[in-house]
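Anyone up for a design puzzle?
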């Protein structure tokens, strides 16, 4: 077996296992697809009931976007749902393996720990792509067909944004197993991500100190630039600086996340955290 095969075989096995787990429960998948529509419809209904005939004009004035409000919101809720799925998928994976009694076996396997995390992360690309098509692409093609070309750019931005998000997921994977509270961590942070990343509004309406925190969250850049790409492909050129920031996060966050995970692993070997429930 060549070195490349030695690396790819376990990665392929982990990827296939996680994809099977994701598609095993179709009802759960349908629920994940419906949530963005439900949240967007709820916000739209509240906005129209309060703003009346001037609701759409007020929306454009406040957001500075010419996008259809439904499309604007669906991009935000779609990216938020992607981050939700990834954080819960990667963040709770090790805890689930621990409860099933398979975590120690995985850690004893003669493969690099990084492959275990990366294989899990790569499987999330499948559901991310499906969410993009079923949520963002459908909304744009039906309500803003002039932005169809921008969908290709938007999808590329979303894929780049997954890389730093995986790094954050590595940190959560370690914290969840350490403190044995998967949903306390992941759901708290997912709600904060929804608020700080501007899923329902432009982050420019937030206080300046909150915008500093928001700028460190990859989803906030992804949502903002995806909206620009769909609104006008040419406008994404003006967001070159934010794309550079997103690429930088893609280089830094996974390294920091894996470093944090390795620190957890070293501690676990001493304290026996992997076998504690």
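Challenge accepted. My sequence:
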């Amino acid at each position: 077996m060549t070195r490349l095969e030695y690396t790819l075989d376990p990665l392929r096995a982990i990827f296939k296992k996680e994809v099977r787990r994701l598609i095993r429960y179709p009802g759960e998948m349908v629920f994940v697809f419906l949530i963005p529509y439900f949240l967007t419809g709820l916000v739209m209904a509240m906005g129209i009931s309060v703003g009346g005939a001037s609701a759409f004009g007020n929306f454009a004035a406040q957001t500075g976007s010419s996008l259809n409000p439904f499309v604007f919101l669906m991009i935000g809720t779609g990216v938020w749902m992607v981050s939700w799925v990834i954080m819960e998928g990667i963040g709770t994976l090790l805890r689930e393996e621990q409860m099933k009694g398979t975590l120690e076996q995985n850690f004893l396997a003669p493969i690099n720990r990084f492959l275990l995390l990366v294989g899990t992360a790569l499987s999330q690309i499948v559901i991310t792509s499906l969410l993009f098509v079923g949520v963002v692409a459908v909304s744009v093609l039906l309500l803003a067909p002039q932005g169809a070309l921008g969908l290709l750019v938007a999808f590329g931005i979303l894929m780049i944004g997954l890389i730093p998000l995986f790094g954050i997921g590595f940190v959560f994977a370690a914290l969840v197993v350490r403190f044995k509270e998967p949903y306390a961590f992941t759901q708290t942070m997912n709600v904060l991500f929804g608020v700080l990343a501007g899923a329902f509004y432009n982050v420019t309406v937030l206080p300046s100190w909150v915008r500093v925190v928001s700028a460190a969250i990859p989803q906030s850049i992804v949502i903002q630039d995806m909206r620009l790409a769909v609104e006008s492909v040419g406008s994404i050129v003006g967001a070159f600086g934010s794309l550079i920031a997103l690429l930088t996060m893609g280089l830094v966050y996974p390294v920091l996340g894996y470093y944090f995970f390795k620190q957890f692993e070293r501690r676990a070997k001493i304290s026996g955290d992997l076998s504690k429930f």
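A detail worth pointing out: The CA atoms of residues 82 and 252 lie 21 Å apart.
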